[in-house]
Amino acid sequence: MLLIKNADIYAPAPVGRGDILVAGGRIVRIEPGIRIPESYCESFDAARLIAVPGFIDGHVHMTGGGGEGGYATRTPELVLSDAIRGGVTTIVGCLGTDGVTRSLRALLAKARGLDEEGISTFIYTGYYAVPVRTLTGSIEQDLLLIDKVIGVGEIALSDHRSTQPTFDEFARIAAEARRGGILSGKAGVVNVHMGDGRRGLSLLRRILDETEIPATQFLPTHINRNPTLFQEGISYAKAGGLVDLTTSTVSAFLDKGEVQCSQGLRAMLEAGVDAAHITFTSDGQGSLPDFDEQGRLRRLGVGRVTSLFAGVRDAVLEKHVALATALQVITANPARILKLRGKGHLAAGADADIVLLEPETLEIQGVIAKGRWLMKDREVLVKGTFE
Length: 387
Ligand code: ZN
Prior knowledge:
globular; TIM Barrel; Urease, subunit C, domain 1; binds zinc ion; alpha/beta; six-stranded parallel β-sheet
């Protein structure tokens, strides 16, 4: 058992100062002044710290991504300590452009590996392309038969790398994901990679207009990649849609008009978007090509899981978004949208995934996942098997 004493708790809503009692990987009580005999329990004084739910990163190329500049540009796999440093205790892995040299089998194995190493993981079946390639033959079967599969994606739309699915093809994918989700008690979400194409969200809007499938079935990502898509994302979210902003970036993308996540969150809230409809994900281990003025590849960056909380921190410290509101986009919202039970909240019965923050700087001071310390006093205690 572990007793975290006197933390300023954001669940993510602020609940004031209290103690958090952890046993068997779960939170069993949250209240002020919990007393447990010392011999039964490790006690940790958090009187100078904020306790928040462990972060959920819903879009990570955990087996590596990229390869769009040839074989040498394939990006590396995620290592556990990257997640820990970013306070990320739950990851949803996905494939991207490459569904040939990257496989769902490898993705599933990597997710299981990270789980064994100490965090919680899920995966999306499929990759950019349609027809969707799956593990067992169909999206529905993957959802029903493989515990870690919680949806399908990232299916690419409005992008030159997309297989340009028709209305019928895309509607069929969503319908299968919905039925598989209902039958397995999972979200069955369709994670949609949005490109820079001028069609924007039009196919998604048509699906919502012309079928019975609700907007909650879709989580379009990279909504902040250009100002036009971002503005369309605002009206889509105000009409009931969910929108995901990508935190990994390089200065070249921002120079070309990408909306910085922290700024994007603030702008969406000011435009009247319900905060519950917004999520952030890192696009971790995806490739970030950095071109010079002549369009020559200067260097190839890699998306970082650590950018996830950096975006939230920046929204609070620089863009003056309330901490509880900003935290939602990487805790309560993805947990609800992706139906990750026990995740995204600090409450009795929830998984003991807890991040401890310095109050002024919001720097990550400690990370607990499934009741185990992974980072303590800013020191990473647990490494991946081959780190
Ligand atoms: Zn993508």
